[in-house]
Amino acid sequence: MTLSSSPSPRKDTGPKRRAADVAYEAIEAMIATLQLQPGSPVVEAEIAESTGLGRTPVREALLRMVSIGLIVQQPRRGLQVSNIDLADHLDVIQTRRVLERLIASCAARRATAPQRQAIVRCAEEMVRAAERGELDGYMLADHELDKIVHLASQNQSAVKSVAPLIVQCRRFWYAYQHEGDVSEGARAHMHLAQGIASGDEAHAVAGANQLMDYLEQFARRIIDR
Predict the structure, then answer these.
(1) Three-state SS for 46?
(2) pTM over 0.90
(3) Distances in Å between the alpha carbon of 70 and those of 85, 101, 196?
(4) pLDDT digits over 77-102, tens only?
(5) Alpha helix segments (H runs only) across 133-200
(6) Which CATH class is domain 19-81?
(7) Where in the chain is the domain with CATH 1.20.120.530?
(8) Does domain 86-224 bear CATH number 1.20.120.530?
(9) Rounded to whole angstroms, how far apart are CA atoms 225 and 213?
(10) pLDDT tens digits, residue range 196-222?
(11) Helix (H, G, I), strand (E, B) or coil at 136
(12) Element (H, E) at 68
């Protein structure tokens, strides 16, 4: 299967957001899709120019990323995108598993009917994109699915904690996508979506576990090769 990469950011049609939040999402997407490579320098002026945003919101977004480890401050070298640590990535997945189980359980219990429908639609789009071999569409639907599930969970503490871990997992996928089975990933997301949509917390948690199992097996193939 031939997969395309580097999706364009999806335009936000919701309520007007703070410029720093827009900048954060734009930079996050560049890191997740390897447009900003691990270990590469991060130049505030270049980011501001490429995003069309002012340097103040870009600076605020970069500081937030330093605080969660996506960007590191190197003495005499400025800001750099953090490197992918293969051994540490298993800990990332282990930690994410705990949070994803909690978020799935909360979403299954608290989601509105429209949110449940939207969650399943996103998973269906992931399956279709996987069948077509379109990584762009697959990853955009994945991102949209995360957003709706996070809103549905109504658990901001868990969502804030899991967000940087999701970015780490996304860029790991982009770095080693040739080793992965996108169809298997789509099936795992569908299991999660159906569990949440059903309102059955045990089913939703089982879906979260299946998704994390998939990510862990994918990571171990890379580490053990």
Answers:
(1) helix
(2) no
(3) 12, 23, 29
(4) 789 999 888 889 999 999 999 999 99
(5) 135-153, 156-175, 182-198
(6) mainly alpha
(7) 86-224
(8) yes
(9) 18
(10) 999 999 999 999 999 999 999 999 988
(11) helix
(12) helix 55-68
